[in-house]
Design the sequence.
């Protein structure tokens, strides 16, 4: 990965994990530890997958949240679908 790309990917990984954690909370009512999900920013840097590493409410280990990124002026916008 190019050195100049690392900060972009790191910011997107953090945003993806935050979005997925916030999306799961209404159904699980659980504050999960940082290690509860594994996040992968996809090659195009405009989408991600967050995979559950522990059970939480209706979600089980291996369930995947899929989301996308967009930019609006200087802001990174992150959206995720949490359906169960």
Sequence:
């Amino acid at each position: 990965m190019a050195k100049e790309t690392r900060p972009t990917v790191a910011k997107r990984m953090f945003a993806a994990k935050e979005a997925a954690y916030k999306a799961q909370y209404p159904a699980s009512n659980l504050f999960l530890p940082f290690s509860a999900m594994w996040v992968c920013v996809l090659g195009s840097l405009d989408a991600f997958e967050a995979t559950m590493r522990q059970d939480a409410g209706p979600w089980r280990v291996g369930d995947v949240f899929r989301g996308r990124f967009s930019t609006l002026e200087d802001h990174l916008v992150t959206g995720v679908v949490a359906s169960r």
Q: What stands out?
A: The CA atoms of residues 15 and 64 lie 16 Å apart. The chain has a mean pLDDT of 92. The longest helix spans residues 6-28. The first strand starts at residue 37 and ends at 41.
